[in-house]
Every structure is written in C-alpha cells, then in structure tokens.
Request: fold
Amino acid sequence: MRRLIAVDWGSTSLRGALLDADSRVLGEISVPAGILTVAAGDFAAVFEQHFGAWMSQPGALALVCGMAGSRQGWREAPYCACPAGFADIASRLLWIEPDRIALVPGLSCEENGVPDVMRGEETQVFGALDLLGLADAQLVLPGTHSKWVQVRAGKIVGLRTFMTGELYGLLRTHSILARTLPPTDGELDVDAFERGLAHARDSASLLHAAFSARTLSLFERLPAASMPSYLSGLVIGEELRAQTLAASGLPLVLIGAPALTARYRLALAAQGLAAQCVGTEAGWRGLDAIARQLSRRLS
Amino acid sequence: MRRLIAVDWGSTSLRGALLDADSRVLGEISVPAGILTVAAGDFAAVFEQHFGAWMSQPGALALVCGMAGSRQGWREAPYCACPAGFADIASRLLWIEPDRIALVPGLSCEENGVPDVMRGEETQVFGALDLLGLADAQLVLPGTHSKWVQVRAGKIVGLRTFMTGELYGLLRTHSILARTLPPTDGELDVDAFERGLAHARDSASLLHAAFSARTLSLFERLPAASMPSYLSGLVIGEELRAQTLAASGLPLVLIGAPALTARYRLALAAQGLAAQCVGTEAGWRGLDAIARQLSRRLS
Reply:
C-alpha cells in the first residue's frame, strides 16, 4: 500500500503530512526546524528525526518541496524555467534516495531581464488548480514574500514576488513607526485596515503612504491600538495597487492560512473583486498528485 | 552689531552657525546632540553648553529650526498650515527668551484627509528660494525622510514625505537582502545604481522591485560589492517614479549634502531632467532672512 510523506521544508518551519493511497491525510507534523536552523550535512538526520517512523513503513515515499531544494538546503534542485506545467516539476525531481526521498524543484521566471523565483509555492499552485479544477487562474500566495502566479492552460507563465510581509515586519519593528505602535498586533481593526488600503491605493508609493502612520498618530487621528491594522492595510493595499487584476479576467485564487487570506479577501472586496480560497492543504494535494504520477509511471 | 546664532536642531544632530550683520558665516558647530539624546528639561543647558560663548555677545539672537520645536523637543511650536509663505513662519516664532532665543515653527499640509509635516526643511526651502531668486519651484530635500515641496508665488502649497533613506537602511540592515550585501557601502557604482533606477521605474512597486536584489545575487548577475549602489538606485528610483515632474513645469531644486544630491541629479538626468543644487547653507540663509525681517521690525 502506497504511503506518501508529503513535506514542505521552508526557511523557518518544517511541515509534513502522512497520506494514504486514497489521498487522505492520516497525520500532520509542524516544527520550527526550518532550513535556516539546520547545519549543512545535518539534513538527513533532521529528516530522519521527524519522519523516521512514517518512513519505516514499506513502500514509503517522501516528496519534499520548499527551500530544502535551495543552495542553503539539503541539496540544490535547479529551478525549472517558466512557462512550466505540473509535468515539468514532476519529471525533474532531485532524488536523495532512489524511489524513496525526492526534492521538488522550484520555478524561475524572467521579466525585463530580472529573474524571479519560488520554491514550494509552485507545488501549492498545482495542488490548488487540481482541487478547484482550473487550468487558467491568477493565484496569490500571501506571506513574508507574497507570490503572484499567473497560470494559462495549466502552465505557470508569470511569477512576481512582493516583499509585503517582510516590509510590514521591518516597518513595524525597526522603523520610526515602531515608536507609536503597541507591543502586540491584537485583533484586526477592519475600519483601520480599510483606511490603510484606501490610502495606499490613493498614493503612488509606499515610501510616501507609510509616513501617514506617523502623522495620523502625531495628530491623534488614529489610536495606537489601531495602528497595526492600518499598517497592514497600507502594505497589502500597496501590493494590490501594483496589480492589474480586473484587466486580466482570470479567476482569482488565494492560497494560505485563513487569518491571512481573510485580509486579502477584504482588500479584494474593496475593489469589487471576489476570490476563491484554498488552505495549506493545497501543498499536500500538489505533492500527492506528483506521487500519483510517479506510481502510474512505476506500475 | 547684530549677531545671529543660526541653529538647526534635528533628531540626531545639532548644527549651528554664527553669522554677522552682512550674513557672513563666521563659524560653524556640528555635534551629535540631536533632540533624541536630550532629556526633557535639559534643552536650555545643552543649548548653553554649545552656544553660550556666541550668545554672550551683546545683541546676540538665536533662531532655532528643526525638531527642537516638536513635542519631544525644547518646546512645541505649533505647525503652520499650508499654504504658507516666508512671512507666515517668520511671524509665528515661539520665543524661549524674548528677543533672544526663538524656535521656528514647522509646516503641515493636508492631502486626501491625511496630514504631512516637516520641521527645519521649510527654513531651508525659503533660504534656497532666496539664494536662487525663485518664487515658483519644486524642491527636493533628500534624506532619511525625503521632503518634496511645491512652491507657487513664494508660498509652500504642497508637501510630501518619502521614507526613502529609512527604507534603504531597513532593507540594507534588517531584511533578507542584508545577507548578500557587504558590511559597508563603499563608493557609488554608477552602473549598478542606474540599473536599480531603471528597474524601479519599470516596476509598479518597491515591494516587488526590491526582491530583484535577492534574485540578481542568487543568479550571480550582480556582484555583492555593487549591491548597495543597486539598492540605492531602487529606492531613489521608486521615489522618482512616484512623482509627476515633467508635467509640473516647475524648476527643480535639490537641497542637501553633495554626496546625496549627486545621486538625485544622476537619477533626474536619467529622465532627462536637470536640477539646481543648494547645500546646507540654505538653512543658514533662511534663518538669516528671518533675522533681517525681525531687525527691520525692531528698528
């Protein structure tokens, strides 16, 4: 009986799931053992530590996506160049142990002579397309580095990274704005969030819009407790301002944890746009699809 | 004989000059005693420590612009609202000691329901206009928080802050990009700087453009030593992308230290725009103009 150990090994976290032959998730693991915490040469041992029990079953197959395939990871799996479809990544696995452990390659995409890249998100994208039965879509994977991925006829044709989550953290923690922000973010203040969205949309650049968090505080027009929500609206609003969504006509798909995709849904709704949401199960689905293709090939 | 002690007391530095009745600079002081280093209640003592000798002459007058007039400063001098001309700030001095020490108020400006502010730059703007004999201009004061100031018929009618220098520092020191940057900036690499300018201009947002510093490093298309210049080009290019310069038709004036204004000249030249440059003497000239007006009023 086929058992898939689906793994997303990112920069800061290591997540895994055990799937049976019917694609059912039998168990999940999430530990803060991202690749940045693992010394070169220790990847096999850390993998064994967390997945050894699952891997001890006969016929166990582990597919690992994410930063584990980067230069700082387990071993470097060269990027697939866009346009790239599911078959491209599924056929370019980097085997750590033959028929037992493989790394899924990331994707690279060139625009105006500048490359962009992702590792792990490509697997979530193909999983989400599979789940939703879509072959054309604009997918958004919000996060520290948000990825905007365009899919046409089942192939990823465009990819852009936005450093939204990271900029939020930098402004929140290290900038002059930090002085007037409370120590913790608290619950989302929807009014303040939408005010931030609107101001980012009206501004030509976040370099200018961000200063409003300072002046609104200075003139006591927004309480400190609402500032994190306002700032979140500013950075997400900036990310959306940079897109040409209505023009593309593609169905919009958000992939990620509900707390974050909910903010993007609000932001898109403010522009009259609707999006379908898929959770992190998209990644397991993508890895499961690769496993199914492998077993068809082997059988 | 009139003696002016012209002071720009900012967040991180305290600068002063002694001017005679013919507006000649007789001496200058620059110390890292910005207002953030001074405890509430200690401002008079710190001022006396650095300017006591100059102030001991009969008829000495000190005019202080900058953050000393902020809530965290010596005493709060309320902002003048735009549109505001030279006469507005000159007539709203906040006297610490009658006819002896005064704070120059800053300016505030409202756009789309959001205020913007400056303290100190307004004095440099009026000084630069006086030096250049201009009544209409677009002035740029680059820095941690760059100020873009529009002047029509001698009045400041518009003001926008861009957190350019601060964002550069955040990205350079605290972001993922810091990993591939050398420990010090080194000399400006003009080619890399202009490549950054061009990429910012082609991108819709710095949130996206900044990631190129990561991928160009990853694909070894730009050496680490050139990265600080490239990143500088990205943030200054973003600041310029957000302007509508050619359309305004106003003469462009850059105010600041030559090392920084030189970068903005390069950036503007890349768009076929020329700018006049004024150094930090603009601030002394602005304070001197206020002093001259006061002495006319008193005589």
